Amino acid sequence: MAELLAIYNAEAGSADDDVRAAVIETLRGGADLVEAPAGEKDLDEMLDAHPGRDVVVLGGDGSLHVVVATLHRRGELDARTVGLVPLGTGNDFARGLGIPLDPQVAARIVLAGRPHPLDLLVDDEGGIVVNVVHLGVGAEASEQAKPLKPRLGRLAYMVGGLLAGVRSPGWRLRVTVDGRQVAGESPVLMLGVGNGVTIGGGTPLTPGARPDDGMVDVVVALTTGPLDRLAYALRLRRGSHPELRRVITDRGREVAVEGEPVPVNADGELIGRTARRRWTVKPAAWRMFT
């Protein structure tokens, strides 16, 4: 019987207690399960107490990010397979990977126990990205949406996007992919580096990305003019923005950015502003039940 450690943050995301309790009951029916209602501060303590157990994240992209980052820091990504039951607001990584958003179906996938190797983005400051990191107007949209999430849920992302789209002037940034400069002459409205596909609860920022191909997809939007912004916003929701003349796309194994301090969002979490950052793909760095 599989030995699992179910990690969740009772204060995070949009899951209610009844849904989580039903998922835990399902997992207990097919595995030796230990519950770990752990916040970021006591996650190490829970992992120390239960060595060798595979980890099941009951939560969204932020919770998954914290768990994978902790396992990476501890050097345990190769020792523990990660499962995901999407109970967050956006659940973008689950969407892109094809994990069902029905919690019961997702729990049964974990119990089926089929590990799949996945890539990981690691930056030059020791941070990681599981799904997508984006800089510029999208990160500002997340900042605007954050106080609205408790009342509006997924709609908060749309409202935040509208507010940021009107206010953001663009940033002077130099972007390179595997050493090739792909942007640097014009202001950048948004830069996306995708291991996964969607952000903000289903918006396909890097629609062709795959988290298991050893590469990341890069999207650079130079659409700072009023009409260009509108076209980008409309196309972004449908995933057809790469067709726009002022949108640059590329793929590679290392992406670097430098220039004006720009807001950054990694896996749905704001991490401040940066004037210089580099991300490198680590192929097959961890495993997930899919």
TrEMBL record:
GO biological process: phospholipid biosynthetic process
GO molecular function: ATP binding; kinase activity
Family annotation (PROSITE patterns): DAGK (PS50146)
Domain DAGKc: 1-126
Keywords, alphabetical: ATP-binding, Kinase, Lipid biosynthesis, Lipid metabolism, Nucleotide-binding, Phospholipid biosynthesis, Phospholipid metabolism, Transferase
InterPro entries tied to this protein: ATP-NAD_kinase_N (IPR017438), Diacylglycerol_kinase_cat_dom (IPR001206), Lipid_Phosphate_FormReg (IPR050187), NAD/diacylglycerol_kinase_sf (IPR016064), YegS/DAGK_C (IPR045540)
SUPFAM superfamilies: NAD kinase/diacylglycerol kinase-like
Family annotation (Pfam families): DAGK_cat, YegS_C
Cofactor or coenzyme needed: Mg(2+)
Domain of life: Bacteria
Stored PANTHER family: SPHINGOSINE KINASE (PTHR12358), SPHINGOSINE KINASE RELATED PROTEIN (PTHR12358:SF54)
Family to which the UniProt record says this protein belongs: Belongs to the diacylglycerol/lipid kinase family.
Protein name (database record): Lipid kinase, YegS/Rv2252/BmrU family
